[in-house]
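Morning. Coffee machine broken again, so started the prediction first thing and wrote up yesterday's gels while waiting. Chain of 80 residues, entered below exactly as on the submission form.
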Amino acid sequence: MASVDDLIRFCRLNLSEDDAERLVGWLAWRTQRNQALAGDRASLDRLRHAIEHWLDSDERRMLLDWLSRRVEGGRSVVPR
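Came back before lunch.
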């Protein structure tokens, strides 16, 4: 199980501000939401909103697993 805090902690350690913003956009696209719904605030705060409100607990777990594998493999954390 991955909590919102688990994901945000991982992202703080492994993502730049630009990566966090791109991840918000990617999550908006994947969940068919308007990126503006994440608000007008700092990237990690926008990411927290997206993770908390757009993903269920299974999706958060899968996202953390997927991001972890990408980091371990030396790949970009955010799809391009």
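The chain has one domain: 4-72. Going to sketch it on the whiteboard this afternoon.
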